[in-house]
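User: Hi! I'm working on a homework problem where we have to compare a predicted structure to a textbook description. Could you give me the structure for the chain below?
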Amino acid sequence: MTPRPVRALTVLLIVTAAATVVVEVLNFRYAPDHGVGFVVRTGWALVRTFGWLILIFQVRRARATAKPLSLILAMTTLFAVGRLIVPSAGRPALPGLIGFGVLTLLFLTVVVLLYRHPTVDAHLIHQPRRPVLTRDGLSFREAPPGDPWVLTARLASFSYCPLMLVPALTAVGTLRHRPEWSLAVIFWILAGIAVSYVALLTAFFLGRGSHRARVALVWSTLLVLAFDLPLCGILLGRDGLIRDGSPLVVAATLTLYALRRTTQAPARAATSSRPGPRFS
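Assistant: Happy to help. Predicted C-alpha cells:
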C-alpha cells in the first residue's frame, strides 16, 4: 500500500501542475504584448507542464529519478514563468505576481518533501527493470541503484536543447529587421538540435561510469554557454539575455556541480576504504 505522505505528495504534484497552467494562462491574458517571443515562451512553458505529469508517474512508480527531475523542473519552470510575468516595458500585472508567489511555495514544498521527508525518501528506491541476456534467454532484472548526482547531471543536460531552441525561435521574429543574422539563427537552431544527441550519448556512457563522458559533458556545457549567451545578447538584447540565458546558466551550473559531486564520491569512498594507521 502506498504510504500516506506519498499519496499527499501525488496530490500536491497534481495541484502544482494545474497551478502552473493557470498562472501561464493569466500571464497570457494580462500581457500587454503578444509578440513572437512571448508566444514561443508561452508555448514552451505549457509544454513544460507535461514534465510535471512525468514526475507524478515517477513518484507513483517509486523511481529514484523523481528527485533530480523535481529539482530541475522547479528551477527551470520558475525562470520560464518569471520571464513571462515581467513585460518588456512597464510593471508586471498583479495576478501574475501573485501566481508566481504561489508557484514558488508549491515548488519549494515539492522539492523539500522529495529530498527531506524520510517516508518519501524510503519510497523512492526502486529502479527500472532492464533486459539482461542470460543462459536461459532474455530476462528482466532491477537495475542497481544509481548515483543521484549522476542522474541529476544527465537530466540537467537534457534541458540544454529546449533552452537553446526557445531563444533561437524567438530570434526568428527579429530577422525581418536584421536579415544579416539569418544564417546565425539557422546554426543556432541546428546547434540546439545537435546538443540533444550529444546529451543523449554522454548520458548513456555517464551512467556506466565513463570518465571520458564526464569530460565530454563538461566541455559541451561550456561550449553551449559560449555559443548561446552571446547570441542571446546580440539578437535579443539585455532583456533576452536575462530571460533566456539565465535558465541555461542555472541548468549548466547544476550539471557541472553534479559532475563534480560524482567525481568526489569515488575519491571519498577510496579514502575511507584505506586501512588506518596501526598502533602496537
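For your comparison, note the following. Residues 1-145 form one domain. Confidence is low (pLDDT under 50) at residues 138-145, 269-273. Good luck with the assignment!
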